[in-house]
Amino acid sequence: MRAHFFFITLQWLLTVPPEAPESNEIIFDAFALREAANSFIDALCSDKHLSSFYHMGDWYEEKFFLSDHVEITRKLDTIPICFNLMEIFAVSPYPTFFCLAPLITAQLAAIVNRCELTLYKNDAMTKAMLDKIEKVLRLISKAQILTNIMPLIFEVIRRGTMHECSSILIELWRILTLIRPMEEKNLNDLMSELDLQMHESPRGIVQMPECPSFQLLKIMNLIVQRNAEKMSDLGFMIISLFPQEPEEDAWEQGPLFPVIAVNDPLKR
């Protein structure tokens, strides 16, 4: 009950009243979002020197900071309300979602490394791992990123192997790095720009950029071909999402990403 009242109060503090009293429209206060995001990220990541910038590198860059990412992930797992707070920022106007970049990066890094660290990469995903992945995908979907195919992505992961899962997450991670604001700015500067936009026109804010999903669909299609017996019903759904005239062969057989886990000496 206390958590329920906490989130109601927080949402009230992060929004401004609509112009029409009878309207159900939700208009966020960008300045309040900035302050809340600063406080939330600093509480979890300040000692890791990750909270000042929203920079999101890919796996091959971020794996060298795996120990930090694992510790952040443990904090998220031990504080139940963290994901509820992250959902508030995820549904807020672009680019508020990318204020969560240190937390999203930490979770993806920990999951990918766990998938690749095992000796049994052809094993199915465990329920505990699927629960973690589902939380991350839900946050990304709430930010209006690949919303139309997110259930399909999770279904392929659920039926796939550890290595196939990491290949999908690596590509999803790459997409996030492509659609984030490209300039390296301090979190305060980034949200201050949003604050100005919201004051000029509350509804004229920048929309989430279009996601380049073709490569992700190709990987999912390849996984379905490798697991025809247990994924045959997913093939048509993936094919229907291909562009009518793709620039490259979507049916070309090839290996999945050679994702490499961080070994023990590097982790230490």
From TrEMBL:
Residues 68-189 form the Integrator complex subunit 5 C-terminal domain. Residues 1-18 form the signal peptide. Keywords: Signal. This is Integrator complex subunit 5 C-terminal domain-containing protein. It holds the Pfam family INTS5_C.
